[in-house]
Design a protein that fits this description.
Elements: E1 3-8, E2 20-25, H1 32-35, H2 37-48, E3 52-55, H3 68-74
Parallel strand pairs: 2-3
Antiparallel strand pairs: 1-2
Length: 79
Amino acid sequence: MARLQILELPEGSNDDRPPFVLVVDQADNDSPLINDGPDIWPDFKNDTGCQHVIVTTETIDIPANDTTAYLRAADGHKE
């Protein structure tokens, strides 16, 4: 199943809000996210305000999105 992640980008001096990229990884090869991408992403980018959309079948780990420490803490494990 595909995952949706946010990759925050450095703010520019003229940015009204922090810029970001939407990353969809682990998508299936036959997914509309991959096959229809060129048709749907321009409107999607305008609707969400993201700068870019990355869609891939590979796994992309964004360190800022790592929640394993929170999951371990919720299970009662200590670092």
